[in-house]
Fold this sequence. Notes:
The protein is of the alpha+beta class.
Amino acid sequence: MITELKESEFYKCRGLLNDHGQLEARAIVEGVNPGRVFVDDMESPASGLIWLGNNDGFIFIGNERNDVFNTGLNHFIDTVIAPEANKVGLNWFEGIGNHPQWNTTIEKVFAYRRLGSWNQRVYTLQKDDYKAANKPAFDEKYKVVQISEIFYDKQIKNMDFLHAKMAEYGASAESFFQRGTGYCVVHQNKIVSVCFSGFVVEQFHCVDIETLEEHRGKKLAQLAANAFVENCLNHSFVPYWDCMASNKPSIAVAENIGFKNVFNYIGYEFKFDV
């Protein structure tokens, strides 16, 4: 039987986490970012499923050969996850394994569901690898501004864009200013590019980066990312970049700054049967 843990019980899953797995899983188990955790055993879990608080997917943790957990997954997803996902407008289940051994299990358990997949790449940046010389020049009409408490409350035309981006991670503004860091590129009193800490665990800061479509191609993402990276390195933080392998522009920005690919993983998807 698969049961949901209370947030105060997430600590029971610490031993199930892969030390070299996705930062998001640890951020939720440690209570830094919101999420939900479902396990095979309330007292001594061996396997689990993490639902990211921004509804951006699921992470399988622990023992991938746990028959009790695995045989109950499809029923649990159909009767518990799918109806709740439907309420928030989610039509697809997107799942990944916290370690590579989960891939075979996921492919086997969900084989009948017309399972699709994609490749994901994870990068980190160490101080000695930072390519500061590659920082682009930019038009003076664009300003790089740190996301501070003062800036957060300013009368920017589209401040709701930043508020919505940060809300995806469920942390309050107060929590962000305690743990995270970030920068915006502003043009004519409008945020046109943003780079900030999404998930934060210990010294690792997971990058969330986006440039408005009409301003792409001007290296604004590089500007925001360089400012973010410099701030992280000055505070002994480790920038962490997770993106789809097919997202060539994102990879180009990361590698231009000096990020190194540290591991890759596979994501799987199928449509909910509701």
